[in-house]
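Case study.
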Amino acid sequence: MLSVEGLNTHYGRAHILQGMQLRIGAGEVMVLLGRNGAGKSTTMKSIIGLVRPTSGRIFFDGQDIAGEEPHRIARRGLGYVPEDRRVFADLTVMENLEVGKQPAREGMRPWTPERLFELFPNLGRMRDRPGGRMSGGEQQMLTIARTLMGNPRLVLLDEPSEGLAPVIVEQMANAILALKDEGLTILLAEQNLHFAGGVADSATVVEKGRVVWSGSMAVLRADEAARTQYLAV
Amino acid sequence: MDSIIPQLLTGLAGASSLFLVASGLTIIFGVTRIVNFSHGSLMMLGAYIGWSILTRLPRDPEWFVLGIIATVLATALIGVLLEMVVLRRVYRAPELFQLLATFGVVLILQDVTLWIWGPVELPLPRSRWLRGFVEIAGNRFPFYDLILIFVGPVVLGLLWLVMNRTRWGTLVRAATLDREMVAALGVDQRLLFTSVFALGAGLAGLGGVLSLPNSSANLHIDLSVITDAFVVVVVGGLGSLPGAFVASLLIGILQAFGIVLVPKITLVLVFLVMAVVLVFRPNGLMGRPQAEAREATVAAPVVRAAPRELRILGGIALLLAVAAPFFVGDYYLTVLTDACVAIVFAASLHFMMGPGGMASFGHAAWFGIGAYGAGLLAQWLGAPMPIGLLAAPISAGIVAALFGWFVVRLSGVYLSMLTLAFAQIVWAISFQWVEVTGGDNGLLGLWPPEWARDPSVYYWMALILSVAVALLLRRALYAPYGYALRAARDSVTRAQSIGLDVARLRMVALIIAGAACGLSGALFAYAKGGVFPTYISIPHSVEALLMVLLGGLQTMTGPIIGALVYTGLADILMRSTDLWRLVLGTVIVLLVVAFPEGIAGAARRLWLRGREA
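After joint prediction, the assembly is written out as follows.
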């Protein structure tokens, strides 16, 4: 469904992504693992178009979208949930959802605020609260809900568990599994191996902007050497 | 006591007009982050277009309203064109270049308006219903002013409804907070920006056409309105609609009472209020701290010493400059002297703007203070030119220190706006304090002494001084002080955490820049034989910005090249065409679109690319 080939991205003179590649099939949940600064977030920003890759190709449903403008990429059905949440602080929960709203997609049940409140019951109890006056966990749920309002077929989730209390992380994992049951394809960036292990089918490990390991989650779990080499802090 | 109520009502009517312009400016800034210098020009166009439409319609109220609607639509359409043709191409350029581009638009629209409607101001013949009076508390009050008072709150209410009750408004508010995220959610920003610009332009047009019955369509609207609107927007807080409304009331009432109570210092009063508000609330009454730019920021390139080839080139240019009096006529010597003055003027602004990171919209203030310092000293004490040339930088430096005390803590756009405000205060003093400054007539008879009266001698002196100032500024830039200053520009918190006193560093930069600029003012005054308030006008401040930005901020050579190019361009244009504003404005816009890093910056990039290849 999504395949990234030989992607290079620079920030100024710094060469961040150095031939990044990955491939996700429809309905798959893949986790991007790697230490801080490995290039996980940059990979996601390059896919959604917030950062313009210097070279390389990104195929979404067989079409090369590299270098397209973010709003066009988003309308193709790619949703992006940023790492630092970026809820619109002055806008209420309902208004935040409104910003994310895009037309329904054929063959998919469209997301409505009511359906999202079933997924994240907390949000339903604070419809008129401004985003800036919510807890970190609530904001994280709101950003995911906001992205889902665009009825994406593939969601890029950048570190959804970061900085959240264990109870909330648990809820988050359940929500992701629920989305997977809906048939959504998910690319997840994570540092929390335990969290990733609970939801992902496959894993890609990045280091210094390139892939150093990839395979199924089960294989990674068994491969202690790889885990120590690439992920131990 | 009798005059309080009518004065209050006049103030409220003025506040409404101010709000119409300021609201558009603030909405546009909120979403696009562009400080639209040409917003006053849009209001001016509104007034002219309104005049053309209304004078062709029957004079009944219903036709009046129709004419207004047509005008608003026309200016909105012009706003759309402006956004699509110019602004859309500069959204990725640095803030100041966007400002420069919109100033280019101001120049273009000035000449276009002059060309279409001519230089004579056009009053609107007022029909009887427009001239009516209403009796309030025993006072006769103009009916039309009551309508104006009513329009302000109605527009505020409508804008509030649009912003809070429609999807478009929600998207606009979201984009004001984080436009990149809005794009990532699938919203086409271009459509949003264009429509926001149309709304803002329409509001300016409304302000323009509604101002017709009380004044006229004239060519001064653009700059006078933009100054007032800047003040309102800054006092209210950039991007805040209710803030703009409250500030309009404050400023409108202040102006109405000021004219009665202290007619001479009304302008000063308005800017003093702005200064006081900003000192206590650095983000305006209802503004909030500017969010850090939510975009992948690329570090500003380091200012490097010029490569050897450039030094050789500079040396040759200097030799040519020294030899110039032997082979050019007196006219060109005057132009060359102006160029020397321009170099000091631009280099001093570059010093605070480039390495100091403090952009000034009012650099002409220091130029004027230096010139008036020398002029007054000559007038009062009969001080000779050398003393005057010495007193100029000292007086400008002292005033810069006083001014710096309360602005160095402000950031970004607010600091720039305060520099503009300060320059307007200085201008107002020079213009209104006739007993001391001679007002509009200026201080005359300021000539160089016998030994320097020959144009070539004066030119050589100006050349020596400008080269000396440029070298001194360069020296400061590469001294430890210069490095510390640049560190403070790049990251205040990091600079502070390694023990740098950021406020003091910036203060010193301001004093150095002010003093150097003061010298250029005195040099200019002696060359022209007098000091006039126009030295401190907004267009003159903008000239300094143009020179620096044309040349580019990244190099020390930039402002010098910019000053030379600008002086040459202005000279050629003004002699060869009446439409010099149109040409200059177009050149500015094209340059910003083509070289967002300035001429010197572009040359440097091409040079480096040539080396790497």
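Observations recorded in class. The first helix of chain B runs from residue 4 to 32. Strands of chain B lie at 122-123, 133-136, 139-142, 216-217, 443-444, 530-531. We will return to this complex in the next lecture.
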